[in-house]
Structures are given as structure tokens and as C-alpha cells.
Amino acid sequence: MSLSDRIEAPPLLPDVFSQWFARRGWTPRTHQLELLAKAKAGRSALLIAPTGGGKTLAGFLPTLVELSEKATLHLSPRAGRGRPSEARSDEGASKVENDGEAPSSGAISPRSIAPPSPRARGEGRSSGIRREGGLHTLYISPLKALAVDIARNLEMPVREMNLPIRLETRTGDTPASKRQRQRRDPPDILLTTPEQLALLLASADAPYMFGSLRRVVLDELHSLVTSKRGDLLSLGLARLFKLAPAMTTVGLSATVAEPDELCRFLAPQPLDGEAKADLVIAHAGAQPMVTMLDTKERLPWAGHSARHALHEIYALIKQHKTTLIFVNTRSQAEFTFQSLWGINDDNLAIALHHGSLDVAQRRKVEDAMSAGKLRAVVCTSSLDLGVDWGDVDLVVNIGAPKGSSRLMQRVGRSNHRYDEPSKAVLVPSNRFEVLECRAAIDAVAANAQDTPPLRLGALDVLCQHILGRAVGEPFLSDELFAEVRSAAPYATLLRTDFDDAVDFVATGGYALKAYERFAKIRQTKDGKWRVAHPRVAQRYRMNIGTIVEADMLKVRLMRSRRGGAAMIPRGGRVLGQVEEYFIEGLTQGDTFVFAGEILKYEALVENEVYVSRSTATDPKVPAYEGGKFPLSTYLAARVRGILADPKAWRALPDQVREWLEIQEWRSLLPPAGDLLVETFPRGNKNYLVCYPFEGRLAHQTLGMLLTRRLERAGMKPLGFVANEYALAVWGLSDLGACMARGELSLGALFAEDMLGDDLEEWLAESALMKRTFRSCAIIAGLIERRFPGEEKSRRQVTMSTDLVYDVLRKHQPDHILLRAARADAATGLLDIKRLAEMLSRIQGRIVHKSLDRVSPLAVPVMLEIGRETVYGEAADTLLAEAAGELIKEAMH
Amino acid sequence: MALSSISLIADPSGALYWPEHGLLAVSDLHLEKGSSYAARGQLLPPYDTAATLARLTRLIAHYAPRVVVSLGDSFHDGGGPARLGIADRDNLAVLQRGRDWIWITGNHDPEPAQNIGGAFHESLTLGALTFRHLPTGVAGEICGHLHPVARISQRGRSMRRRCFAADATRLVMPAFGAFTGGLNVRDAAFADLFGTLAFTAHMLGATQVYAFAATRCLRD
What is the pTM (predicted TM-score) of this model? Predict the structure, then answer.
């Protein structure tokens, strides 16, 4: 940190601000003043601060000060001294001037939707400043709700200091008339989302609208950069730096493992070397108090319900003012909420919050929460980000925390009073999770971060951006390539990949040049690419963004049927949305838990699910879906470390220690870097269980590949099941005996070459790969998104992306979209990268133990058999089986 | 599979073979569907025609039919034949050599086309069986148009496959084209055609066709 704690406030902070701070009884925090100093020096900055550290105000303070000074300036023109905006007027001033003078819309663009941009309000000023007013600061948040919330929070200081600042939000909900007006007459501060930014940039007005921009504030940057939204944002940012060269950025982030990477994200990257924003770290506040629930009950071997600990959790709620209860999945949230109400003898106000609930219902919960009316909220990662909720004094995390940074962010949701420690209790729902919780607590104590590294920019997102750029105004390939490379995630992009992306946007990128005449963008004589038809621009706008949701169906509570009529009465209250594939597995009359109730599935009418309330006490269909986030590599290594070190077991609950001691006696616990493989018979089958600790997704992929190899080796595998920690494969052959006879080598079975041909073969038919391809195809613009009114064809579109995948894979396996899908598969649903690292780690380090029965360590994963649905690829076997059943029925 | 007491082979690729006449029937090829979409702004891969013809080539090599019937909607639109690439056009000509080739007209391709060989008919009657694109529901009819698919759930997994939909006297063929989607056999269109749900869905597996009563099949 470059500034000491004894910063002299007056030169940085104008009187009106100092007085305002004083009136509220606050002192400006060091990091708030530091950001102000960075802004004055014309530097971009990344602020890392815990929740409750006045982060938002820190991000906006420079803007508020500059805008207030400008107003003062306007009233009494005492030269521009100290105006940060003029501190850099030497940089590209003439270019800015030019852009500002040329009324860009209409003249350059193929089509103009807005009326000619009005010239600068007031008289043009002589130097660097384009015009009085105009958009000064753009704020980007990952959540629409957060943008709205921040706007509300900002209005307070603006109002109280009587600052002449106009601030507005722009989201998907903003009415068209207001959007139009915002283009013509932008506010001083605009709060929006990455998708809206992309839309604004893909317009002929963009140079006009953003030419005056001085600052971009990026909130929750740590969360944005981990996804394709971050890629899209980085490309938008690169464009903004071109349109407004004097612009600086401010990133707001929770603590991350590699702050330097975020600093790079915030600065345009030069051709060689790298550029970084300055790092400002806020004082970390008090060390959080994280403990594990020391349950009096028996710890379950498997499962994720934490049913055993409900009464203890309820007691915790009673002891605290407001408790946030985090769980990992929607169904866990439903289960926990229901069960808590089952024992809620004191009628405490306990609410439910997850992403599938209806927005109105979520909003109600959030409002009740801010009003302090709730004692507890059961929630999923839907509350990991955003909305600041004051009075939470306890965070309970049910299940495994999955990553230490994630846990720290969740813990930070409690106690927003900065200097008091946050308090959190971890509730493991089974024995393995005890190990994971222990590892996480140690990691938090060591303040060890495990946020993922910065992504490499995705090619499908690049394709979308390229089309957007052509929609905005014609571009030259060389110039756009340079611009794209200035975005940190794309800094290493190859020219060939870029050219392929342009080719894809133009004519589909097919080796068979069949579509020249249907090109979406064409090169004109001056070499510039422009959209071939206004319809292309229109379609681009409809398909913008990188979020491809699973197909969701609306869930409606059915109105009572009159006189037992057979028809389903249409309409009824919307309870929320549920994934289509979940409903596919149900038949009429099945009961399941949703929106805090046990519901009976009645019918699917078009794209709406009709349900009724059920009197059943146990839902028939348990809907556990594996956690969305796999165990972080860092925590996995810590867990393996605990297992390998009997001394570390002392910190574990008695039941868990005993479990490990028996495992050591009956089988063994391998050294931290080794992979234990156990084989044993059970019933009339033979099992192979291994413990890679690499997360369910990687294990699932490993299971697919291992069964393929075993099949080929004639070992007749029948199935497998994976959980976060282990993988169990079973079959008819006695694998242990085969190994003893030297017919099967574990080294060969787990050899890295399984990621070659075996993987390729499997990818050809994998449903997960097809899903991955589908989202790449949508993002890149090959397949269009569906819109209300077109939903009847949803099924056919899903079908055809699979068909497109099959055909493309066969005829042009190196097509850019297949490359994009493979890159996603490396880290996404198939987690191949993690698997590859594991395979390489365990080469020559496999420990085999042949047992006569199941080992203690194997019990949890064995209990998952029959409980977990596996994405098997053996659909034909199932078809044969289903057909066989019919024959049996017919013969009896 | 028997239709009006005539025995037919339902191939898992979705084709129908009538040994007595050495006749191979395929339906709804929708050739040049990719380029048809491309013309309207969605640049789907231009390989669907090649893929469909390659599958057809394998079938013809296997059955060596004397007659090939393409049961309508052979091209995705009227402009399809003209957009056919040179290689695909040549392949088609090779397939047609030495056998009768009959294009039944469909709703997507109602007019006879130039330069693609074969003969054009609205329907073809051979003995007790009539081949036509649009179903009319009369006995002995083999038709296409509906793109039947069936869905079965087994052990919590749902499988959706193209299928032949048939009762004792009528048969709807699955779509053969590489880019063709499908309509669930539990859709009202099928109940209307067969009168009731007393028909069978013959689902296409990898190496064999699996029969299920329509009542056992699930809606989408």
C-alpha cells in the first residue's frame, strides 16, 4: 500500500464530503482515500476488501468527487486545476475530440436506430473534454438485483450532499422508452450488467455514448471473471478503452488467490509484456470464527441431508438474531427448509431462497430480511453474491464447503460490522464431509485462497463479440485483432483462431465453402467487415449473452378441478421453475419437494408443469442433484493430507477417527500423493473402489472411461457410481484375481492414454458433451435462443443441436465450435483437466489392496449405488431390458 | 414386421425393406436442410446431405435393392435440388445407377425437380401396399411426414428415439435425414391417424429395433 494510515484528508476529499462523513459519524477508510488518490493519479485500481468494508462507496467516491467538482467548476469557473479528467488530457486528446465531433450514428453505421445524436450539451470546451456532461461512470455488476440495490445505496450520499448527479440503472427490465432516452441523453452514472454493456456497444451510438466515459466500476469481479460472462465483459472493456482512451477502471473484489490476474483484467494489455491496475488491499477486519458442529448424534455414512443435525441447527437459530443457512443445492435447500419447519415449535420466521423460486417470492424474502423480520433464511449460492443484509450474526454451512475462498465469502455474509469477527458453523452431512470441513477450517485459519486461475477467453464468446462489433460499426480485422488481444483473457489468442472466428461469423467457418452467398458479414472494398443485412443485427441483439440455461419449465399450482373434470384447468399460481430433465423422469402422481412443499405431479401442458399439493409425508422422488461446485483442488490435497496423517485425526470427532482407524487396520490409508484402489467381492458381483478426491464430475468421466477399458479387456463391467471423493466400479469378473494372475494391470488401466482414443470415442456419444456443444453453438450464434411464443419447438431444437454435433464431428472435427466445446469440457461438466492432472499425479503411485469384503472407507460410495442416477451411455441395453420386461409380462 | 400380412424388414437405420420386390424405402430425407437454414441466416453445417447420402449408400450396399423409394420431403425446400453440391450430386447419380429410383412428392417438395434423376410420383401402389407422403389412414398405406419418435423411461432414465409407428395395416416411417427432428407418437396426430392408441412404436436402437405398445410410451 502506497499510502499510510495518516492520510491528510482535505486535499483528497472536498469539504462537502468530509462534512458528510462527519455528519454520519464516519471516518473515511484508508482504502477509500487510496482509491481516490489512484483516481487523481489517473490510475486504474483493484480493491480487495471484505464484505462490509465500505467497498461500494470506495468504488464510487472518486466519481462522486469528480462530478461534484465539475459542478462547482461550472458555477464558478476557476480553471480546471486538480480535475482528474484533465490530468491525462495529453493522452489521445485529439482522437477523443474527433470522435466527439463526428456525429457517429448514421454516418458510419449501416443502420441507425436512434435519431442523430445531439451534440454536446452546453458549449464544447476547448481541451480534452468532449462536452459537458455525458456518461461519466459505468458500473457493471453480475446481478441485475445488485445493480438496482447499489443505485439505491448511492442515492443516499448524492441526496444528502445535494450533488447534481443523475444516476440510472439499465437492465433487462428497463422500459424501451427509457433505454432510448439513455442513449440520447446518458446519465452521469449508469449501473448495468455485462449483457447490457454488450448491447450498448453493438450500436452505432456507442462512440457517442461512451466517448465521455472516465471510469468503469466492476463489482464482484472475482465472480465475474470465472465464467464466459467475464470473457464477454473483457472484450467489452477492450472496446471501451478504445472509445474512451482516458478511461480508468476500478475493480471491487473479495479476496482471491491471484490478485495480479484481476489487475491484468482491469488494464488493456500491451502487445508484449503485461499491464496491471494498481492493487489496493483493505484492512482485512477480524479473523472469522469458524467451527464445526460437534454433533451429539451419529454421523451418517453417506447422503447430504444433514437430517441428524436438524435439532442442533434449530437450537443455533434460536440462540442468534438472524442466521443464514447455506446449502449446496436447491433440493437440499428444500429439504432443510421443510424439515426445520417440521420442528419449528416456536414458530420462528424461517424463509427459503434459491434461484429456481419465482422472482417475486425471492424479492419478498429479501425485503423481509432487510427489514429484520426473519430469524433464518435457508439459501443456496443464490445468496453468495450481492445484496447487503446487515444483521446476520451467524452463518451455518450445511454440507461440504467445496473451497476455502467460497467458504470465506459465505462466512463474510455474517456480521457486516467490519471489525467484529464473523461467526460460522459448518455442519458436515456425512463422514467424508467431516474431513472436508476440517480441511476448510484449517485453510480459513491460514487464510489460504483457492479461487480458480483466470480463464483463457472462450472462442464461442469471441465469435459473439465479433458479430457485435460488426453490428456496431464496420471493423478491420487487424485492428479488431489488436483490440481483442488487449483483453487479458485473450492476450495469448492466436491470429489463426481469430481468423477462424471471423470466418465462422461470416460463413459458418466450414471447410466446404458453400455459404459465401449467405454470409452474415462481408468485407467491403476498403477491407472493413460490415453486417450484410439489418436482419443480422436484429438477430444478434436477440441472442446476446453467455448464459445458457438448462431448459426450465414453469411450475404451476393447479386450480382445483370442478366436479372432478378430466381437463386440467389452465392458469394457477406460479411456484417457480424446474429443469426439464427432472420432470422427464416423473410420471403422473409422483410426489417431490419444491418451493417448500410436497407436491404431486399432475401433468405437463405445453411447457408448464401442473402440480397439486400432496398430503404425503415423504416425497416419492428424492431429488438430490450433486453440488454444482466440485471440491477445489486445494482442499482435496488438504483432505488427502489429513487422511495420510494419523496425527491430524486428533482434531476429528471420535466417530470419524474410529472409522479411519478401522480402515487402517482392515485395509490401509495411502500416503498423500498415492491412489488407493481396493477390490472386493460382494453379493454376486466384484467391486473396484478408488479414492481420487477430485470431485464428482471428474470421477464420473473417469468411471465412463474405466468401464470402457474394462469392457475391452473382457472384464464385463456392469456399472459405476461416483461421489465427490471416490469411484466404485462393479462387474462380473473378479478383478482382484485377474490382477493377481497378471491379466490386468492397474498401471495400464489408469494410464494417461485413456484421455486419447477412449475419450474421443466416448465424447462422440456423450450426452454431456452434446449439452456442452449446444451452449457453445448458442453463444457463438449458430443456433438461436428461443423466445416466448416459440417454445413449442424447443424439443426439436434440442434434437437438432445433437444432430448438428454428430454431423459436424464426422465431417469437420477441427471446426471452431468443436474446439470451443472441447475447451469447455476440459473444465466443465466433464472436468477432463482435473482428471488429467490426477492421472499424471498417480503414475507409479497406485496402491492396490485386495480385500475379502467392503472396507470402511468404501462404505459411503457403496451406499450411493441405486441412489444416484448415472449418465450412462448404455441406453440400448436399457431399451432391450425394457422391451424384455414386456415380453416377460406377455408370457405370464 | 408385417403389414397387411406382407412381411417387411424394419432396418434400425430407419429404412424399410420389402424383400419380395427388392424395394428399399426411406422417408423424409430433407436433403439440403443445412443450406436451407443458411439461406435464412442460420449457418448450420453444410454436411447434412453428404451424411444422409452416406447412410443411404451403406443401406443400398447392404440390401442391393432393385427399387428405391424416397417417400417425400426428400429435399427440405423446392430450391434444394438446385443447391445440391457437385460431389453430392455425383454420389446420388451413382446410387441411382442400375435401379429404379422413385421420388414421391411431399409437402416440402411438391414439384418434380430437374437434374436429380429418378421418376416423380405422387404415390406408388404395389400389390396391397401404397406408398405416399401424407398419411390418409387407409389400410395398406406406408407414409412419412410425421417424423415419429417415441420416449421410454427405464430405471429413471429417459430415452427418446426415432421409430416406425405401425398397426396391422398402416405404417408411418421415421425421418431418415441427418438434421430431422421428431414428433412424439403420443401426439394427437398419431391417435387421429390410427384411431386409437392400439399401435406399436418400433424404436430404433443401435443394432436392432425395439417394439413398444404406444400406451407404454411417454409423452414429451
Answer: 0.83
